[in-house]
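This part of the workshop introduces the protein records we will be handling. A record pairs a protein's sequence with a compact description of its fold. Comparing a sequence with its tokens is the quickest way to learn the format. The record below serves as our worked example for the rest of this section:
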Amino acid sequence: MLESILKTVPPMSVEDVMDKCDGIYLCVKDKNSTFLWCNENFARLTGQTKDDIIGKVDQRAEHVKYDQQVMASGKPVLNLHESITVPDGNGGMREVQIVTQKGLLRQPGTGEIIGITVCFALQDSADDWIAKLNLKQIDLGGYFAPVARADEGTLKFALPDRFNGDRRLYSTNYYLLKDPQVLQLHSLNQDEQWFYHAGNPIRLHCFTPDGRYLVTDVGADPSRGQALQAVAPHGSWFGGEILEGGYGLFGCSLAPGWQPADPARPTAQQLAQLKESFPGQADVIDRLTKRGL
């Protein structure tokens, strides 16, 4: 099939086209994660030749794990956000974010799954998004930029007592977190709605005033238990950490609108009480109270 000649000018084989498709990285592996084929783009990205790769076993444990999961499920996966380590051109290595489609390679005639096809593209880096959206690093960890706020407001007397002044009806912002940073534990006067935009998922840990511990992974893949959006209830202590390395970009919306005086951090006494109330999550609480990098 790869040798089939297409009616291009000049004539090209299917393999020629797949080698030259702009910005697309392709490979095929058998059930044992041995590379059966890859395109030229894939080889160049990894700093190798096609001959270096074909016939060798993929040693990238995380990628192999997802391959095995897809083959075991019998269902292809679309828009999987992963990271891959590649040469940086200066003798070192760098981590880049990719969006992957994993399909199933089946035996002709029987339909038996005999391998996996992988197609991915590079996505913007955390630094790309920080520059594009003019994000600024914040003391709670991560990067923040306001986006919009209502042109109408609500007076203090119409709001619950926990608010210390008038508020806009709503406000929205961008928030980016990159590993190993964490979004540190804090509390807000209003519910905060979270929306996934790009990158890897964030795990939100929420400790509610009525004694519940809530965990939500906000990301792109509901089939892996991720939610495209979530809510951190007002009055809760909550924080977050990136799953699978790399970074995640999210939108956050608050109503009534956010003001700088709204976030509160737990005191030492409150942290001690929190650990006493949630002893099984003491390590989580410790992780979410370290300073952002």
